[in-house]
Design brief:
three-stranded antiparallel sheet, single chain, mainly alpha, 7 helices, 5 strands, two-stranded antiparallel ribbon
Length: 246
C-alpha cells in the first residue's frame, strides 16, 4: 500500500472499529502510531501529503483502578504455594510475590539482576535506561523480599545475572533438566499468570494491577484508606493514590 493512498476516513474507520471490538486504549494507540508513522515519513521526505492520522478524536480512557481484596489475595497465595509444590520450583511464587512486595513494573521485575541488589542496605537499584520515566530509582526491599532473593541465590547458577531464571527446557540424557548455555530472563509470563488467575478465581486482573495493592501498611495491609504511593510506583506526577487491601 502506498502512503498517498491512505485517507483520513480510513484511519477514522479503523479507530472506530478497534474501539468497538478491542478497546478504547488500543484504538487510541493505533491511531497515534499511524500519526507518528506519517510524521516520520514527512520528516524523512518519503511523503509530502497531509497526515491522515492528524486530529483523530481519541476515545476517553478511564484510569484503571482494579486491585485485589483480602479474599482474592488469600486465594492467590494458596495457588502460588500449590504451584511451588507441584512444579517443584518456587519460581512463579517468588516472581508474583516480588511484584506485590516492590510494586515495580513487570519488565523491571522480570529483568532483576543480582548486580543491582545491595543486600547490605536491602535495596534494589533500577537504572534510568530501564525506567519508563528515564530516572534511576532505588527500591527498598522489605524482609520477605530479601528472603525471596536469598533463597533464589541458592537456586540460580552463580554465573547467571538474572534473579528470576526460567526453568530450563532442555532435557539431558538421564532425564534431568539441563542448564541453558546462555541464561536469559523470563520474556512474558502471560500464559502462567492466566493459569494462576484462573485457579485463584480472580477475574479481570492483570499482572500490572498488583502494583495497586502496595501501600505503606503492606505486607500485611491493614489500612482501609487510600495510601500515599511510593516514588517508584509513579506513572505520572502527581500520581493517583493507591489502595491498601483489607
Amino acid at each position: 500500500m502506498r502512503l498517498a493512498s491512505v485517507t483520513r476516513r480510513e484511519v477514522e474507520s479503523l479507530h472506530l472499529k478497534l474501539g468497538k471490538t478491542v478497546g478504547h486504549r488500543t484504538a487510541n494507540v493505533a491511531a497515534g502510531l499511524i500519526r507518528n508513522m506519517f510524521n516520520r515519513a514527512i520528516e524523512w521526505e518519503m511523503f509530502d501529503g497531509r497526515n491522515p492520522g492528524d486530529r483523530i478524536k481519541k476515545f476517553p480512557e478511564l484510569p484503571r483502578e482494579r486491585f485485589l481484596n483480602g479474599d482474592e489475595l488469600a486465594r492467590l497465595f494458596h495457588v502460588l504455594e500449590v504451584m511451588a509444590t507441584e512444579d517443584e520450583s518456587p519460581l512463579w511464587r517468588d516472581l508474583i510475590l516480588m511484584h506485590l512486595l516492590t510494586g515495580a513494573r513487570r519488565s523491571n521485575v522480570l529483568r532483576m539482576r543480582w548486580a543491582d541488589i545491595d543486600q547490605t542496605t536491602a535495596t534494589w537499584t533500577i537504572g534510568r535506561s530501564e525506567m519508563k520515566g528515564k530516572r534511576t530509582v532505588v527500591v527498598p526491599l522489605v524482609p520477605l523480599a530479601m528472603t525471596i532473593i536469598q533463597s533464589r541465590r541458592l537456586l540460580v547458577p552463580a554465573a547467571c545475572p538474572w534473579v528470576f531464571l526460567p526453568m530450563p527446557k532442555r532435557i539431558l540424557a538421564d532425564g534431568t533438566r539441563g542448564v541453558d548455555a546462555e541464561p536469559h530472563p523470563i520474556e512474558d509470563p502471560k500464559s502462567c499468570w492466566e493459569r494462576i488467575r484462573r485457579d485463584a478465581d480472580i477475574k479481570d486482573v492483570r499482572l500490572h494491577d498488583l502494583r495497586r495493592n502496595l501501600g505503606p501498611g503492606w505486607p500485611p495491609a491493614t489500612q482501609t484508606r487510600r495510601s500515599s504511593p511510593r516514588p517508584w510506583l509513579f506513572h505520572r506526577w502527581p500520581p493517583r493514590p493507591l489502595r491498601a487491601s483489607t
